[in-house]
Amino acid sequence: MEQTARTRLSLAPRRRYARLAVAFFFFLNGVLLATWAARIPAVQAQLSLAPAALGTALFSGAVGALAGMNGGGYLVARYGSRLVVILATMSLCLMLVLVAFVPSLPFLIMALALLGASSGAMDISMNTQGVAVEHLYGRPLLNSFHACYSLGSLGGALAGGLIAGWNIPLPAHFGGIALAGAILAFGAIPALLPSFSDQGASQKEGGTRVTFARPTRTTLALGLIAFCSLFGEGAMADWSALYLNSNLHSGAGLAPTGYAAFSIMMMVSRGVGDALTARLGAGWMVRLGGLLAASGLALVLLTPWLPLALLGFALIGSGLGVTFPLTLSVAGRLAGQGQATSTALAAVATCGYTGLMAGPPTIGFVASLLGLRLALGLIVLLSLGISLMAGAANKPSISPSPPAPHRPKAEAERTASEPPPGP
């Protein structure tokens, strides 16, 4: 009994530092990507790119991100998430600098593909670390990590706007952010969990690790929830301002306020999502998230009054904000059910980001046939679908990692740097 209490006390600082380190990497990922996004107009002007050419370059970044997620899942399962976090973060910083120096469209396409691949690998590896920290705490934490990403995105976008307004050249802007990010990342590396990849992953007889396996029904359901959630998020990013301006006649100055309300409430919901999930359970949170998003968008589409529409966008952000992180949290607990932690995460994240990519063009295609109001109604149906599939998020539950058993002193010293076993 005394030994167990002593072990828990020794784990407390370690898991706290690990939590702060993982939160920092989520924040840094948001800052780096928002830094690039804020200066896209400058890159377009620098290379004199037509909209179609810029779209091609941006698409290469999305393809690179999907490839990086799947490749990152394999590398995490094989080498551990800590190493992949380190390499992917340094690569993302380097690729951000490289983008500032590209001389032509073909080089931009290659640079953005590498930038996307680095971000995708970082995404999977830091989410795997986040799942590991959840295991140590024995309660939901992944929503708070994604809130840090949202905060980083907001900070990177605001700083990028100010720097662009001061006409600071791209190499100085990207180089300064990347250098600061890399230095801070090196400081946070020691606090990462040493090698959580798939400690609880299912293994074949004889102890052979399963790296890839056929997706389970739960994984597929989680992937569909992630797809529907990010489909709606991508559509809100690209079509909310246009809807307010063209359908509610808000004017160009107020048109962006819908997406602002959506984004702010998405960050807020992620900030409180873990506490609510601990009380209500992941299944109920996903179900309520889908219902909130569906009712919010229905309000947007049915009201002719701008303040009510803004309330609707806030409800959409509140609902969709928690659903995607929860799918990743549950996917990270599927180890032992036929998949490694990292590959289950990669499968669900890939489905989600496919929805993010598919959402805006699909809405545009349907809008050209039926009008934007009816096209956005598709997201109401997808949000209701999230609620119907929410049962997939009920299992398995999080349980805290058990304290390490008492071992001889020599063995304890030899394995002191190893993480405690997963649940």
TrEMBL record:
GO terms for molecular function: transmembrane transporter activity. SUPFAM superfamilies: MFS general substrate transporter. Residues 18-395 form the Major facilitator superfamily (MFS) profile domain. The keyword Cell membrane does not apply. It is found in: Cell membrane. It holds the Pfam family MFS_1. InterPro entries: MFS (IPR011701), MFS_dom (IPR020846), MFS_trans_sf (IPR036259), MFS_Transporter (IPR051788). The chain crosses the membrane at residues 20-40, 52-76, 83-101, 107-126, 147-168, 174-197, 218-236, 248-268, 280-302, 308-328, 340-359, 365-390. Residues 394-423 are annotated as: Disordered. Its main location: membrane. This is MFS transporter. It comes from Thermogemmatispora aurantia.
